[in-house]
Design a protein that fits this description.
- The structure is a single chain.
- The protein has a domain at about 65-160: Beta-Lactamase (2-Layer Sandwich).
- Strands 2-1-5-4-3 form a five-stranded antiparallel β-sheet.
- With about 210 residues, it is α+β, with helices and mostly antiparallel strands.
- The two termini are about 45 Å apart.
- β3 (about 125-130) and β4 (about 130-140) form a beta hairpin.
- It contains five helices and five strands.
- It has helices at about 1-10, 15-65, 70-85, 155-190, 205-210; strands at about 90-95, 100-105, 125-130, 130-140, 150-155.
């Protein structure tokens, strides 16, 4: 009997309004939070890409400078630039015509093999490889052994920022899941009939007038 009452209660207009309101609030909050998360991810990635493009231009200028002492000063300057971006795990590589590394700064990836298919990506088009955001550009005076320059930066910091946003989204999602049914119940109570006795106010005078006759 209790199950039948519960089943009948779940089919009432008040319960349906409560569930609809709760679902609408929860889905709206979830869509907004996911949109914010993706917007932040796009902004962080775009900022990294802009910095890498500027680094490519700067390195190309360094490579065009005359160096009577040989490439030692060039490699020293590139290593110094990499050490100045230790927090971002920034690195630079020189690649041959086939895309294989011929020189790398001290902070390069531990597994350069992940970058070997970099030639499949158009030149000066940022892409993600092995947890790094990288970009490749043709050298001003390319040779077989020194044909491309590759610049990259770790995505670890950006991923940490996104992880904090994911935690915030999870907390707000749980709160919305808890509070949305309550809000839907309150709205359903306002929209539904308040009391069945409200219709008896007109029935009592009708009965008394019949009895007086």
């Amino acid at each position: 009997m209790s199950f039948e009452r519960f089943r009948a209660w779940t089919r009432t207009l008040r319960v349906r309004l409560m569930l609809w309101d709760a679902a609408a609030v929860f889905l709206t909050a979830l869509a907004v939070l996911i949109g914010v998360r993706e917007g932040v991810r796009f902004a962080l990635q775009h900022e990294i890409d802009e910095v890498l493009l500027e680094d490519i231009d700067e390195i190309n200028l360094l490579l065009q400078e005359p160096r009577p002492d040989g490439d030692d000063t060039l490699f020293f300057d590139l290593d110094r630039k990499a050490r100045g971006h230790t927090h971002h795990v920034w690195f630079v590589m020189l690649l041959d015509k086939n895309g294989k590394p011929t020189w790398s700064s001290d902070k390069g990836p531990e597994e350069p093999a992940r970058l070997l298919n970099i030639l499949s990506v158009p030149s000066e088009s940022p892409t993600t490889r092995g947890g790094f955001r990288v970009i490749r550009s043709l050298l001003p005076k390319p040779t077989h052994e020194r044909h491309w320059v590759l610049v990259g930066s770790s995505l670890e910091i950006a991923n940490q920022d996104l992880a904090r946003i994911d935690q915030l989204v999870s907390v707000i999602g749980v709160l919305a899941l808890i509070l949305a049914p309550l809000g839907g119940f309150l709205l359903a109570n306002r929209a539904g009939p308040r009391n069945s006795t409200s219709g008896c106010r007109f029935a009592v005078p009708a009965t008394s007038s019949t009895g007086s006759r």
